Amino acid sequence: xxxxxxxxxxxxxxxxxxxxxxxxxxxxxxxxxxxxxxxxxxxxxxxxxxxxxxxxxxxxxxxxxxxxxxxxxxxxxxxxxxxxxxxxxxxxxxxxxxxxxxxxxxxxxxxxxxxxxxxxxxxxxxxxxxxxxxxxxxxxxxxxxxxxxxxxxxxxxxxxxxxxxxxxxxxxxxxxxxxxxxxxxxxxxxxxxxxxxxxxxxxxxxxxxxxxxxxxxxxxxxxxxxxxxxxxxxxxxxxxxxxxxxxxxxxxxxxxxxxxxxxxxxxxxxxxxxxxxxxxxxxxxxxx
Length: 288
What we know:
- By secondary structure, this protein is α/β, with parallel strands linked by helices.
- It has helices spanning 4-21, 30-43, 90-109, 135-145, 193-203, 231-236, 267-284; strands at 49-55, 58-67, 75-80, 116-121, 152-157, 184-189, 211-216, 241-245.
- It has an 8-stranded mixed beta sheet with strand order 1-2-4-3-5-8-6-7, with helices on both faces.
- The longest helix is centred in the middle third of the chain and has 20 residues, at 90-109.
- The protein is globular and about 45 Å long.
């Protein structure tokens, strides 16, 4: 069973981020979303580090929350908060931001036993993707400059849509994956397969959330669809990272369209993911 309060919080956060602020680009809404997210973290009693930089001359920021003990390599859990133009971005990527906030509130009350960084990444979408202006690439570069590296990164990318049917890229159509789009997927490269194994074990402690996994060969280049989020910034740094996803446009027909609205989100599914991630953090910290 899922918590009614978690579902209600997810719905309220999605309304504030996606309906009230709406489009989140450099031209419209991104700064408002950044301010709203910072206030939301702080309202949970969490200090926020603003990782500021300039993108095409405009000030932007990743928002970083440090939890757990100091020292050692941190586990990173993140989600981008920008959208493409012309959409409120409910699934892409408001769903993930709302799940990240819900997880942050839980961990504020019961801090993890391992160093943990929760990150709201700015500017993942085109034209920033794959450039020095992408928020996650700035985050990776700042870690390198500080002489740090993560024990692993968990990137949430579109986690709020379920459907009666599920499509796959051509190489996976006969791989035995489910025909119904009611599961959460974890995508890793070979370097990240142990993180994927441990995360999936933790997520599966919540039996009501089906989990499927994929290890993409050749750093994902043979399946380029699986590289299209912030985890690829960590892959390119040769750091372990996984993408947690509802499979994006292979399930959700509203991808990058004005129809990507909060009415299409499955908030119960998202609440189950919050519960599962909470259990997974315990497992990854050696307490599960």
